[in-house]
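Comment thread on ticket #2218

A.B. wrote:
> Attaching the input chain for the structure job we discussed in standup.
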Amino acid sequence: PSVAVDVRVLDMVRRLFLRVAPNNTAYTEAYEEFLDELGFSLEHHGALRRLFAASLEWYTHLRNQVEYFFDQELESAREQYLTEQAAEEQPSDDEGTQRGRSSSHASSTSSTSHSRSSSSSSTRSSSPTPAPHSKGKGKRKRSPSPEPAQNPFPDPKPRTRPSEYLRKRCPACFGGELRHDPSSTADVFVCVDACFTQKRHKSQPDAPKTHPDTHFIPDELSAQMEEYVERVRGDQTSKRAKKATCEEVEDEDDHYAHPNLHVSEANLDVCEESFTAADERRTKSNTQQFDITAIMGLLCRHDRVLWLLNMRSAGEKQFGALLLVEELFQHLPEDVQVGLLYDIVCQLARSALKWGFLERYFPRLAFAVAVFHAFGHVWPCQLVFHPRYREGFGFTNGEGCERFWHSISHLIAHLRISGSHHRLYVLDAQIKHADEASLFKLAEWNHRRSLHSKAKRVEAEDELEDCDYAVSWLRKQWKAQVASQTKPVARMTKKSASEKAIASVLAQRQVVSVLKEKKAEIEANLLDAADRSNTDDTLLLASDLKKARAALAKARTELKRKEGALGVDGRNKLNNKTQAKFLELRVSALALKKRLRDLLRAHKFEREALERNSRRQQGSDPNLRDHTLDAIKRRRPKIVKLNRQYNETCDKIAAEIKSKRAPRRAIPPPKIDPKILFQLDIADTVWQDIGLEDPEEEEKEVPPWLGDESVRKGIRAMLVVDRANEEDRILEKERRSLRIWFAEEWSMLELAIQHAGTSPACGLWRSN
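C.D. wrote:
> Ran it. Output below, let me know if you need it in another format.
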């Protein structure tokens, strides 16, 4: 050997590189300079780097293998412990046989995710190829239809408790005897998200090396799932497209996407357009430059990683989320309900119902949107999927993935140029270190969340007392509000068709006006960027201007079409309508509010991106930072101005109603307080269009949830109390799981110590 490194030095550097980005070059250069100052000069500058890096790599791998060896010994003791526990309960013969099998299966699943998934994926058949066309004489025969796509995941094996893999990942979620609670919407909560900053440049492959406790799902299984999803969509899309061309659409009625999904198709389409992640055709990463474009993760509500998945596509395709959910259910008992939080969960639920994905698990799934991304969804979608409105989720926010991406953000530069196997190894090591650090903080986390829930409840109960309404009555009002604001648009009657057409023309005029302002704003910013000689901003704004001009031209064409469709009588009604001013003001206010919502969403996302960049303290992309900061500074005065215009329009609408120049049962829309404009609370007025929509003809009076602010305040307080009660039940269940897990770990460890040295593996270890 040409160099020897003290094991204590290697251990110190190993611990250091778990807290900062690994950098052997910087460490060895500093060490060589330190030795040179002491008079010990190496023959070749930089010669220590490769030797030290190899020593550290194999030392780290050796430590991990030792830990894995003892983990296997402890799992053997666990199997014996579970067998003894089952024997003490003295079950019947059939029940004892089944329990023994379950215990044995639970211990067998404690192996690594990589080996488990690799072995299971080898037994799963990939999607079959279509059958060839048959040839024969005489009359032409119809070619046989291809076999249906086959899910690469088999039916889950029966279990009496979660697999040892899951129990090891999070004792608070899976450590106890997990059973379905009929009074709960979900028994465990997980979140899914993708991170497109964790990319890897294309390069020559490095030597294979796998962490013994890896969190990554094999790429082979990922490819099979992607093929399955594309195959299912391809087969059913062609059939539905053919059917749609043969049917004539009689009207433009909106409708629910599915009987089990109470969000209309129109609202789901708006949500899809709001999120870049929901549009798989958009490019987030350059696949020509990167072979790994992102990683997708599945985490529990305690921010502990369950599985990770490498992504190679340009966009955030849904097969990744489907794969992670399928993998999760392979490790759960068959009656456990799962609460799934995802930033575009409405699109995932629609795809699952439309194409049949997750069909066998759908009754056991409760969908919710992550709290931070909820503001990108339209209001009806928030009513259905927001975890603060959704029953059973407590105060679970679903942002564990975002916190995890931030915790590994210091690895971005290092992993972007690392070898593929080294990259996975470093990530697994970082996650294992984070899990060990957070394991003994789970009780503290539980206590902190209990205090938070208590404070929320006390505040909400005070508000409930102030509103002086019975909770049962408020609950009926809340159900009526959800039913009213989530129902699809009704079919137009002959009586209202003319009114709808006039309102549509007024709305289209407002769209043209807004697009004109947007084009003028982009033109001004483009001139400013040209004066500053900012090439990046100039190119970006030039592209935005081209799109804005095209959108304006399209809107003007649509306006001409709608005005022409009115006819002479319709145009006369439009010009001579008694309530035309009120209708125009209401349409204008609604357009201003929608524009205000769009700007607030963009402001929130840009501010979050800027804060993440500041926390990382990375100066690698100053142009992007400056562009984001300029966009925020330019947009904030625009938001304030729009809010002022909206409030002034609301005052004008109120004046029209007071002077009886408005339809019967019309109510003035509430103004938006500029002091809380940028807080984006879920209960803010900005998300609801109260007073800006047509009143229902069948309603004889304005419902209390719509016209009484004290009722709306009481409903908000009632929902907070409900979530606090749910959170307390969830936290109590997690405390019970931790106690059960700790008692079992303690007993299992005592048993392992008693039998230490008696197993063949221990003897083999000592002889080596």
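A.B. wrote:
> Thanks. Noting for the ticket: Residues 15 and 433 are 9 Å apart (CA to CA).
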